[in-house]
Amino acid sequence: MKYKVMKKQFNSDECFVCGIHNHAGLKTAFYELENGVVITITKGDNFHQSYPNRMHGGIISALLDETIGRAINITEPETWGVTIKLEVSYRKPVPLDEEIVVCGWITKTKGMTFKGEGVILAKDRKTVLATSEGTYFKQNIHDIIGEHRLSGWQFIEDTHAVTEIELDHEFTRSE
Ligand SMILES: CCCCC/C=C\C/C=C\C/C=C\C/C=C\CCCC(=O)SCCNC(=O)CCNC(=O)[C@H](O)C(C)(C)COP(=O)(O)OP(=O)(O)OC[C@H]1O[C@@H](n2cnc3c(N)ncnc32)[C@H](O)[C@@H]1OP(=O)(O)O
Asked: Which domain holds residue 103?
C-alpha cells in the first residue's frame, strides 16, 4: 500500500540516530505518514556491524527506540519523551549493504507515559527483520537537556523530496 508523506521531522546536531554532525551515527531523516506512522529509510555502515554484514543489535534497538518515540509528535507536536522501557525481537539479520525501513507508531497514551510499537522492514518493504515495543515518559525538553542548547534542532530540506512510500505491512494497534 502507498502512504502519503505528510511532514518531514526535525533533525538534531549530535544524536546518534538523527544527528547531522554525528560522524559515527546514522543521520536519519524521519517522515510522518498519513496513517499515523513515522518512518525512516536508512542503511547502516560497516562501523555499525556486529557479525560481518549484520547490523549490531544495539544499533537496531536505537533505531526502533527513536522512531517509536518520534511518533508521538504526529498527534502531540510539542511532546518530548525519554525511553523508560524497550523490548526488541530480532527476527532476521539486518544487512548493512541494503536499505531498510524503520517504522514506529503510538499505541497508547496515559498520564505522563505513552507506548508504541515499531518494525524494521527489509528492502522489499515487506520482510520483517525486527519488531519492538517501547514505553516513554513525557518530559519538558528543558528538564531533559538541562543547560545544553536547543539550537541544533532543525529542519533539513531534502534534495529530493520524499512524497510517498510503498509498504507491504499491516500496522496493527494491539491496545
Ligand atoms: C538540541 C535539542 C534537541 C536534541 C534532541 C536530540 C535527539 C533526540 C531526537 C529526537 C527526539 C524526539 C523523539 C525521540 C524519542 C526517543 C528517542 C530516544 C530517547 C532516549 O534515548 S532517552 C535516553 C534513555 N532514557 C533515559 O535517559 C530516561 C532515564 N530516566 C529518567 O530520567 C527518569 O526515570 C524519569 C524522568 C523517566 C522519571 O524520573 P522522575 O524523577 O521524574 O520521576 P520518578 O522517578 O518518580 O518516576 C515517575 C514514575 O515513572 C516510573 N518510572 C520511572 N522510570 C521507570 C522505568 N524505567 N520503568 C518503569 N517505570 C519507571 C516511576 O516508577 C514513577 O511511577 P509512579 O508514579 O507510578 O510511582
From this structure: 2-166
Contact 85, 64 (CB under 8 A): no
Distance 108 CA to ligand 1 centre (A): 16
Query: Is position 175 within any domain?
Result: no
47-59 tens-digit pLDDT: 999 999 999 999 9
Which residue shows C-alpha cell 520482510?
Answer: 127
Residue 80 CA to ligand 1 centre (angstroms): 10
What is the count of structural domains for the chain?
Answer: 1
**ipTM of the complex as predicted:** 0.83
So what's the pLDDT on residue 161? 85
Alpha-carbon distance of 54 to 97, in angstroms, equals 9
Q: Which residue reads 536508512 in cell numbers?
A: 42
The response to whether residue 10 sits with its C-beta less than 6 Å from ligand 1 reads: no
Query: What's CA 74's distance to the chain center, in Å?
Result: 13
Domain with 25 in it: what CATH number?
Answer: 3.10.129.10
The answer to whether residue 171 is domain-embedded is no
